[in-house]
Task: structure prediction
Amino acid sequence: MPEKNYSEINPAWEGRKPVIVGFLCNWCSYRAADLAGTSRFGYPATLRDIRIMCTGRLDPTFVIKALREGADGVLVMGCHPHQCHYDEGNYKAMRRMALLRRTLAQLGVHPDRIQLGWASAAQGALFTETVAAMTERIAELGPLEWRDTIEDNITPRMPSPEIEEVVHGR
Amino acid sequence: MAGNGKPKLALYWASSCGGCEIAVLALHEKILDVADAFDIVFWPCVMDFKEADIEAMEDGSIDICLFNGAIRNDDNEHMAHLMRQKSKVMVAFGSCAMEGCMPGLANFADREQMMKFIYHDSPSTDNPEGIEPQLVTEVAEGNLRLPAFWNTVRTLDQVVPVEYYLPGCPPEAKWIEAAVGAILSGELPPPGSVIGLDVTVCDECPRTKNEKKITRFYRPQEIIPDPDICLLEQGIFCAGIATRGGCGALCPQVNMGCRGCYGPNEGVIDGGARLIGAIGSVIEGRTAEDIDAVLDTLPDPAGYFYRFSLPHSLLQRVHLVNDNGRNVAQPIKEVPRLDPGLNV
Amino acid sequence: MTEEKVGVYVCHCGHNIAGTVDVEAVAEWAADMPNVAISRDYKFMCSSLGQELIEEDVKEYGLTRVVVAACSPHMHEPTFRRACERAGLNPYLFEMANIREHDSWVHADDINAATEKAKAIVAGSIRRVMELQPLEPFIAKIDEPTLVVGGGIAGINTALEIANAGHPVYMVEREPSIGGHMAQLDKTFPTLDCSACILTPKMFDVGNHPNITLMTYSEVEQVDGYVGNFTVRVRKKARKIITDLCTGCGDCWSRCPAKVVDDVYEAGLGYRTAIYRPFPQAVPKYPVIDVDTCIYYEKGTCKACQKFCPTDAIDFDQEDEIVVLNVGNIVLATGYKLFDARRIPQYGYGRLANVFTSMEFERMVNASGPTGGKVVLRDGVTEPQTVGIVHCVGSRDRNYNQHCSNTCCMAALKFAHLVKERTGAEIYNFYIDIRTPSKNYEEFYHRILEEGAHLIRGRAAEVTDAARLPGEEGKLIIQAEDTLIGKQRRVPVDMVVLMAAMEPYEDAVEVSHRFGIGCSEAGFFTEKHPKLDPVATMTDGVFIAGACAGPKDIPESVEQGAAAAARVLTLIGQGEIKIEPIRATIDEDRCSGCRICNNLCPYSAIEFIEELGVSRVNPALCKGCGTCVAACPSQVIEGQHFTFDSIMAQIEGILYDRIEDTERVTYLGSQPAEAR
Result:
């Protein structure tokens, strides 16, 4: 897949490309990604994945941390329901993700930036499609740039020559 | 040290409600011991020292500064820097200084939205002329300067380095005593420590705890809780599972779910995330519809999970979007549903 | 920052990685990362030379951590872990960065993007590896005895293999006798061997084997422990017979006045008494009293069996007995149940008298069955002139079971043969596909065709007694579309046999939880790997064999029984097992006893210690999924090797280029004043 110009989809990208952090479970989705590789399927180089043993390990803190440190989206993929290698970890992931997305929406994170999906170890094609589709969606939504939110540049309501610019301690 | 050989103590309130000052008074007669042991050099709530007095002091000459309140405006920030400069040890006293607390809820909005609501749109605002506070106002005597509100409320340690933390809204008297005692005896924990417990409210809560399976949540007006069983098990939100203990589990003992005012447990950087993980794990439901149905009974999860700790969480505030040079808070109103395609 | 020294190795993998990722550039870039002591690129890291490179560098540079950026950890993580071990470095201080399957192979036409991504992945691995801790596997001893649950052909085979190898076996069977469904059959395909003739010698061996302790009419109630060390609580239900005195003479059941339909062994076709032995060749030979149908338990009278028992072996007050067993391994061979054909009302089972299930038909053709082997209608006298056999009743059906039940086509053809042999009746089989895959099965099919059975390719739509056309009066009519000729057909028959699906037992899901294994939504137990590990489960020490894992025929059940036995014998032979140290631990000093974690563990590895008010993870039961680690609201559960810190560090590393200011504090606040 040749490098796309994401600024054409949303000018806010300004030449950079979306960064999606992926959390893949060791038994199913990680292997699906491996299979996509063995099959030489192509997908955008926007996903940077991290392996965990089970989506049940997915601590919501990880998703929040990824967003805070500059990810534009987070993709979590696990085994299909009733095929979890550890019986039910993916059900817990589903419930936590539901609650996480609701909470993050209130904090201004569009729910489409946090996606949960299932792929069995045999579904390399599905994995590929999922990454491509999510990349498209994130491209539409634009960059998240949480750092800018935290270091937001404050100007007083009414500029006054007596006030010096206050520089933040961090 | 002062000529009288006593350690110097300063207490300052930034963006706060005054409860932490009252908490100091809750030491009751022990306050006399404090007055005896320390030379109080600054306490705007109680004593008549001025900012200029502090500025005149030598750097680092104040032994301890108990700083409560969040950093809401440029005056708070200025005073945080000033007190830091003049103090050997800064203590973030109370939830506002430590986690952000109630002022931190302003991080769900931006300054413009707040001003608009407070001075114009709120149902109880009676402001036909649309008067708003101005940064600078000319009066006969000169220019009056009000503090400038920042968009984002910050905690004390996001502005200056802090040596110790006293959690609570407000901290319980026994912890203030413990802090004061440690200071006087010189047996202080390592810098960066929280003066408090290392376990959660559950440890102190007398209710019986069993396995948790939540099929729905109840608002306080919807249920009369069983006084003996864990509140969360009854579907009543209680943040005690993820909140630092030390308060003696006061709220659960009066049928009120803990709201999390002591902030997250030791070592936790985002208490809201822990609540999302824990509560998400124990709600019942295996299909998208069932899970959404349970979660629909918990409106405003961000409010529940970040009530006291939003500024100190990983994300710190609602996302800001640049709108013609102004940073605008843009929460998403629509409640996300789970994709039914996740069911098999 | 730590004092760790990381060695980074970027593999070319020939052209596989280097063709797309600029591996030299990645290695060069990695050399400048904090804590990286040595950074190399190399053609084939997995080769012996590549591994030696690591071993030498560990010694020369005093490396404390190693990162290999190459293929998937599923390929070579064990390889490089062993290399580290040889060099004296704990194998869990190693991390693989997947820049092949997840990078070079999928971003082939964009070298820049592939290289940038490789750097990000490597940065993540470097940060993660620095947080990892040395771990030691946990060694568990293997107890010698084995528990086999289920006394059907699979379980019998497992038990005999292990017992013949010289090791003790406990067999627990729910019914009063072992034998399972195979004991109900008449002839077995494709050889048409008499089922009882080939089964009963094995049953006898089990009953008399010095190494096998047989507990029939018993059930496993609770399983605790872990591989090599299971504690199993078994309830031996009261037979009401003192087995030490009973000779199996049969005087009791020949005198019993209470008769009831036998819907277990006779599949509802025949009767039994309240005190009964399920079938003549039952092992053990002792009867049981069915307290639900016995007159004594209802009214307090009768006691005919006791009066006539020559050895005074009846004890109406006998109570259930609880036995606790310590075993090293468990094999589940609990078999299947037949689909309840009443669920398909249009086939008329239970409503139309002469509609039979496959198992009823087995009992009918069995020489020791209720009809003495005669193929007759429900009146017990009339021979059918025409018989219809409906395949796939409850199988291959979205409304009931999606799966194919594997055995019914062969069984249906066998029935066609038996009907022909005994009555000369015309036979019509209604099928979707004829599935005869195994040895000599296809040949058997052709034999039946030659015998003159009529095979109609069409799923039967209904079985009805409502005559519409001439010739249908008094008959059962099977209506189906004959897809090969494209026409609807109504075939009038005297008798219909429904080939009912093989299903898991109703309590299969509950049983799977009791033994800590997984099962499908329907209830078939889940194997560790469908292709390469069909008898193991995700739970070490618990194996599955036979139809409980999925529909299969007798040879396959026997094979799986033997395979499970072989696996057990391996463990017994080794005497001990290394358990991967990836598991959760609870810091009990800081646990507040909220109990959020308690019911999250699929392996019941978390218990609450009342006296201490804390929860505790049993390290041998824990499989390391991390669900409790993520759920703990006070963050006092740590997941070894996938710790909170290591993953957070990996996130920071993987976003290294998005975090411009590397000095920026990771965890806000709580910074000592000296640091500023």
User: Anything to note?
Assistant: The first helix of chain B runs from residue 19 to 25. DSSP finds ten helices and twelve strands in chain B. Residues 233 and 316 of chain B are 30 Å apart (CA to CA). Chain B touches chain C through 42 residues (CB under 8 Å).
